[in-house]
Design brief:
This protein is of the alpha/beta class. Helices cover about 20% and strands about 30% of the residues.
Length: about 120
């Protein structure tokens, strides 16, 4: 890192990351989520797979999963269609919660358990 700018290439042992963003967010523009992903992935050559689905009775979403050259997941990007500035899957009683999902908390727990970095001795 020099000149105060982050390297566009992730380190060889990039920390797995997950990003959720609503495509109708009027507080934080959806391009910001895309920017986080592109800055994290840089020119890594990661292989991407795309899944499109819908929460029963809720939002449709696109989940893009990026894997490094060893097949290890390094990033998931969830774009929630019709979602605004909210925590997805939260209680309707809370502020900035969108109960129409997907359940961000459950997906984050799954993601980090499945993609934990190995401990080095």
């Amino acid at each position: 890192m020099s000149g105060g700018h982050a390297s566009p290439n992730p380190p060889a042992t990039a920390t797995p990351s997950i990003v959720f963003h609503g495509d109708r967010d009027q507080t934080v523009h959806p391009r910001n989520g895309e920017h986080v992903v592109s800055r994290s992935m840089g020119a890594s050559g990661a292989d991407a797979s795309i899944e499109r689905a819908r929460v029963p009775g809720g939002h449709a979403y696109t989940r893009t999963t990026y894997r490094d050259s060893t097949g290890r997941v390094v990033m998931e990007y969830w774009l929630v269609h019709g979602g605004g500035h909210a925590w997805f899957g939260g209680s309707p009683r809370g502020s900035h919660m969108d109960p129409k999902g997907p359940d961000a908390a459950r997906e984050m727990i799954r993601f980090f358990y499945q993609n934990a970095l190995e401990q080095r001795a």
